Amino acid sequence: MFFRVPLLAGALFGVAVLAAAQAPLQLQISNGRVTLHAQNVPVRTILAEWSKVGGTRIMKAPNIITAK
Asked: Can you give the residue ranges of every domain in the chain?
């Protein structure tokens, strides 16, 4: 009985770590607000997900953003 609690806690922690490793990008749009959690994700991937989730079309415009 004593070993079940740490074993269960370890298993739950392992599942949480795997879920986090498989989902480095989470994007949610609700009531006009965007919630974005991303780690080591290219901007191209974020915009593709935004397009899919938000039902929007993202157009390529290389001259809009310029580095200074």
From this structure: 24-68
